[in-house]
DNA sequence: ATTTAGCACTCGCTTCTAATGAGTGCTAAC
DNA sequence: GTTAGCACTCATTAGAAGCGAGTGCTAAAT
């Protein structure tokens, strides 16, 4: 039952323990950890020299790194990954911290937007990292009612109300070939036949099911196609809610302007953020460093939790921080917060 | 005709000239300017010693400062103020730069929001400062049409469309004391009697003009009051559009994290920004340093330009940068951009 | 076969000193 | 009124010295 460099790629108990202690310590103090520091812990019975040997092995295996030849060790990305996957002190051990549930203001929030915004703010306040809530995509909601309200002879506003109470609206140009009566018919048909369809599907449903109906009832069916495209061509509409955008500035590893700048720029770039934070996986996921597949994020971890409505995934709440994050705290926090959001959201529809 | 420290508080021609040259130079190089530097300019005929005397006087008068006893001079806030008010090389002298008009994408922008967003982005790209567009306050717009769309037995969505095509919407709780027929009547009355009124006025107009009508037509007039309050209690709704939020980080005077942080935090604080950027003055205004009345802004200048619609002020476009800004360039830029925005906006309503 | 004490060595960080140079204010001469 | 000359100030830079936390390796101890 020998220990360190076995061929089977397994770590000895002692190695596991040392690795965990080291990462815990590094996360807490953000400074390279040396053999002496570890050996000083009362639950460690080995001398610094022994520890050193183990550390050297752990480094060879890729779990640790040095900042320079004679420095202490810091966790590598692989080290963090292993820590998160196998070494996190069992998560359920945070019983009295769970009161956070109450942190979302108890007064009944009416608008989902306020809930998202509050959640993001709370999360960033509690962690001192940056948080992002990815709101539901209104286009996935179901059409409750639509309407076209003329503004002038040429312009009008089209309004779509979803089952969740979202309102999507856009200004449209009325082709002068279109007759008011046809417009009215169009609206009626859409409301009668397509109520309950997801907004995003409206256009294709029309193509498939309703072209006959249109042909029958409308005088100028030809031009209607172009108009419908204008009316129903959606652009992505998820909304992002931020908390603690500048919190990164107080993280010691980003105390350098040239390192924060790309980060802050990244945060401001909508599509990158959407990509980063989108995830359809249930529960909490952790992406570490380069796993986020963007240069600016290489020293950051992203924790992602999805929230649901009637059991269906509709958005995420995420936390962005340095790779050395307080994973344990943060994961359980995100877990409970996303549950709470789910609850609140489902309350709305009562 | 003596020169420097006259009792009348006027500056001599030479002092004016030196002051302007110094500030120009400082704005360009962002480094304290010494007497030698100034005397080296070919249009200056005096020796460094003479310049030094003038500089000392200008300092006594409060237009200049030193960073330490033996450093060159930098402009004081008062210096910048004077420069902006009296020394700016006549603004109209930027003829070939005026093509910027075209910078707003020529394809016809339909939504005002896109216009605002583009303008902010262009402005920050062109200047490398941070820009903010304060959108129109939808509540100042006139009611075109309103509607209440039920979601469930208790919830509904209220929608207000303005003459400019803005859509305001909110979820409301339907008191179960209210009868559907009354709701319908309410909507009808509002549309008939209050079309054309500014949203913000709706509630008071009802109090003043319509309570009689309500009393007459509705069964349950009592509870209506509370409901109306819920329906028509607006919260501020200006929208802010940003460009170059992180540009501050590349300004040499903010190369220090502890100095940028408050600035970035300030930018993220809605109400502070609204206050900073609101201005009902016509044309371009310049606020320098502490004139902005906030600690975080003490080393910044804010240039503000208002844009209008049908001659009425409806919003502003602003630039935030270090007090040593390229005022000349920036002011003329803002002037032409705000005009262009005004033009585009008025095109919409055709 | 592990474990540990001992030791030489590395490297980042801090402190100190000296040198440099841009700039000033003042005085006396032009 | 202007300017040359000079002593003086102060921020910045470079180098040298010393400190200390940490390592790897070897040889002895368990």
Radius of gyration of chain A: 27 Å
Euclidean distance between termini CA atoms of chain A: 61 Å
The whole-number mean of residue pLDDT values of chain A reads: 88
Largest interface: A-B, 33 and 35 residues
Notable traits:
Enolase-like, domain 1; 350 residues; homodimer; alpha+beta; Beta-Lactamase; DNA-binding; five-stranded antiparallel β-sheet
Quick description:
The structure is a homodimer of 350-residue chains. With 350 residues, the first copy, chain A, is of the alpha+beta class. Chain A is built from eleven helices and ten strands.
How do the helices and strands line up, and which of them pair or pack?
Two copies of one chain form a homodimer.
Chain A: H1 13-29, H2 35-40, H3 48-60, E1 64-66, E2 73-75, H4 77-87, H5 112-127, E3 130-134, E4 143-150, E5 155-162, E6 167-173, H6 180-194, H7 202-217, H8 221-232, E7 240-243, H9 257-268, H10 270-277, E8 284-288, E9 300-309, E10 312-322, H11 327-348
Antiparallel strand pairs in A: 1-2, 3-7, 3-10, 4-5, 5-6, 8-9, 9-10
Helix pairs in contact in A: 1-3, 1-4, 5-11, 6-7, 7-8
The structure holds a DNA duplex (30 and 30 nucleotides).
Structure write-up:
2 copies of one chain form a homodimer. The first copy, chain A, is of the alpha+beta class and 350 residues long. Chain A has 3 domains: 13-87, Arc Repressor Mutant, subunit A (Orthogonal Bundle), CATH 1.10.10.10; 91-136 and 239-348, GAF domain (Beta-Lactamase, 2-Layer Sandwich); 139-232, 2-Layer Sandwich (Enolase-like, domain 1). The first copy, chain A, has helices at residues 13-29, 35-40, 48-60, 77-87, 112-127, 180-194, 202-217, 221-232, 257-268, 270-277, 327-348, and strands at 64-66, 73-75, 130-134, 143-150, 155-162, 167-173, 240-243, 284-288, 300-309, 312-322. In chain A, the strands form 3 sheets. A 5-stranded antiparallel β-sheet of chain A has the order 7-3-10-9-8, with helices on both faces. In chain A, strands 4-5-6 form a 3-stranded antiparallel β-sheet, covered by helices on one side. In chain A, strand 1 and strand 2 form a beta hairpin. Chain A binds chain B through residues 110-111, 144-145, 147, 149, 151-152, 154-155, 157, 159, 161, 163, 165, 167, 169-171, 173, 245-246, 249-250, 255, 257, 260-261, 264-265, 268, 349-350, and chain B through 110-111, 144-145, 147, 149, 151-152, 154-155, 157, 159, 161, 163-165, 167, 169-171, 173, 245-246, 249-250, 255, 257, 260-261, 264-265, 268, 348-350. The structure holds a DNA duplex (30 and 30 nucleotides).
């Amino acid at each position: 039952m020998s220990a360190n460099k076995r061929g089977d790629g397994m770590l000895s108990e002692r190695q596991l323990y040392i690795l965990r202690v080291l990462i815990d310590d590094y996360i807490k103090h953000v400074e390279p950890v040396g053999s002496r520091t570890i050996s000083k812990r009362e639950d460690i019975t080995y001398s610094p020299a022994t520890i050193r040997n183990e550390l050297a092995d752990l480094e060879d295996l890729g779990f640790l790194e040095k900042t320079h030849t004679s420095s202490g060790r810091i966790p590598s990305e692989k080290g963090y990954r292993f820590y998160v996957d196998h070494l996190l002190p069992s998560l359920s051990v945070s019983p009295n911290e769970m009161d956070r549930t109450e942190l979302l203001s108890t007064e009944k929030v009416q608008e989902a937007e306020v809930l998202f915004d509050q959640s993001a703010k709370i999360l960033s306040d509690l962690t001192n990292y940056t948080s992002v809530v990815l709101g539901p995509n209104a286009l996935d909601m179901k059409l409750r009612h639509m309407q076209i309200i003329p503004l002038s002879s040429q312009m009008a506003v089209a309004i779509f109300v979803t089952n969740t109470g979202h309102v999507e609206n856009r200004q449209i140009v009325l082709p002068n070939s279109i007759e008011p009566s046809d417009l009215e018919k169009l609206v009626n048909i859409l409301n009668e036949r397509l109520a309950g369809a997801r907004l995003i599907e409206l256009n294709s449903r029309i193509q498939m099911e309703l072209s006959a109906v249109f042909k029958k009832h409308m005088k100028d069916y030809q031009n209607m196609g172009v108009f419908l495209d204008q009316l129903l061509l959606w652009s992505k509409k998820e909304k992002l809610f931020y908390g603690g955008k500048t919190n990164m500035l107080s993280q010691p590893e980003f105390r350098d302007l040239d390192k924060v700048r790309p980060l802050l720029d990244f945060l401001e770039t909508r599509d990158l953020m959407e990509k980063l934070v989108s995830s359809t996986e249930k529960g909490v996921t952790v992406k570490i460093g380069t796993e986020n597949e963007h240069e600016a994020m290489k020293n950051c971890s992203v924790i992602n939790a999805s929230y649901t409505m009637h059991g269906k995934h509709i958005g995420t709440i995420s936390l962005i921080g340095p790779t050395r994050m307080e994973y344990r705290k943060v994961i359980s926090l995100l877990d409970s917060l996303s549950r709470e959001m789910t609850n609140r959201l489902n309350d709305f529809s009562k």
